């Protein structure tokens, strides 16, 4: 199959049931980046919220509903590697699921925040929206949307808002890439996940 956006090829399994019933797997991505040193591991540990009944553009990290966010831990899968499966938490319900994590940077630098998603999604870094792609684009493919980010030394909060689109938006991938023009010798250490 082809994702129709990046031209990447991937296999996926589809099962057909009675009538219009269908079930399918997430794609299996066989390719590793050509320059693996340019790619961080996926951020694997997140906290996921309950579903919110708001439109994706209305999400503002500083104005989230109070204590009743229903945060629960969620860990990335092994297959496909790094995938945060929101559908396991919320099934075919519609709404926006928030995913939060924290990373730490040892030395200030610039990276590319790389978000894979299938539902419409926004990525906020320290409360600032750096990616906003509201349309659903299946499947969830690593590195679908990217943004350059400059991070100071210290801890930084990541927040992803994912529109589940009644089960069509199933999850995310997130990792960091070295920007073009940086050599292997110049590369600073990647932002690394850390406890809040």
Description of the structure:
The protein is mostly beta strands. The chain has one domain: Sandwich (Jelly Rolls), CATH 2.60.120. The protein has one helix spanning 87-90, and strands spanning 14-16, 22-24, 45-52, 72-75, 84-85, 96-105, 109-117, 121-125, 128-133, 145-151, 154-163, 171-177, 192-193. The strands form three sheets. Strands 3, 4, 6, 8, 9, 11 and 13 form a seven-stranded antiparallel sheet that branches. A four-stranded antiparallel sheet has the order 5-12-7-10. Strand 1 (14-16) and strand 2 form a beta hairpin. The protein is globular and about 55 Å long. The model is unreliable at 1-7 (pLDDT under 50).
Q: Which key features would you list for this structure?
A:
single chain, 196 residues, mainly beta, Jelly Rolls, 39% strand, disordered N terminus
């Amino acid at each position: 199959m082809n994702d129709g956006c990046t031209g990447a090829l991937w296999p996926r399994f589809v099962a057909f049931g009675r009538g219009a019933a269908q079930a399918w797997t997430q794609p299996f991505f066989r390719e590793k980046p050509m320059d693996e040193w340019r790619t961080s591991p996926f951020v694997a540990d997140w906290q996921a919220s309950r579903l919110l009944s708001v439109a994706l553009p209305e999400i503002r990290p500083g104005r989230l509903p109070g204590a009743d966010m229903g945060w629960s831990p969620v860990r990335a899968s092994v297959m496909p590697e790094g995938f945060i499966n929101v559908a396991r938490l919320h099934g075919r319900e519609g709404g926006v699921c928030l995913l939060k994590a924290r990373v730490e940077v040892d030395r200030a630098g610039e990276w590319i925040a790389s978000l894979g998603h299938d539902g419409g999604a926004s990525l906020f870094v320290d409360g600032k929206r750096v990616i906003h792609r509201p349309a659903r684009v299946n499947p969830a493919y690593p590195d679908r949307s990217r943004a350059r980010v400059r991070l100071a030394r210290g801890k930084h909060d990541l927040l992803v808002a994912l529109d589940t689109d009644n089960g069509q938006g199933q999850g995310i991938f997130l990792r960091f890439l070295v920007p073009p023009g940086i050599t292997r010798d110049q590369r600073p250490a990647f932002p690394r996940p850390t406890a809040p």
